[in-house]
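dude i think i finally got it to work??
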Amino acid sequence: MSNSKILVVDDEPFILRTLTFVLKKEGYDIATAVNGEEALAQIRASEPSLVFVDAMMPKKDGYQVAQEVRDDPTLKRQPYIIMLTARGQESDREKAERVGINEFMTKPFSPSKVAARVREILERT
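look at this
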């Protein structure tokens, strides 16, 4: 489903470059942000179908971003949110679920598996 908007939010340039490259190659419209405040502004402005959000970022972390998105009544469409994190403890997963994160992906990840997973998600939505 090309032309779907995807927002990639991470303060690590390598992650931003990798996901941007892989997903653009699949035909998606990609935007990036490096902190939680930028992420919220872009989500409200462009309402992406899918958001990759890092757990730990400056200004607002991924959990805060997800909570604000889920609590925002002005959004016409809620994005599917995938949290990227180097930590994969059960307590992190439980917290992610509580704030409305749809999926949890640990770093490092396989770019080809990410592309396949994005295709699956966007075909359903």
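The mean pLDDT is 93.
im so relieved honestly
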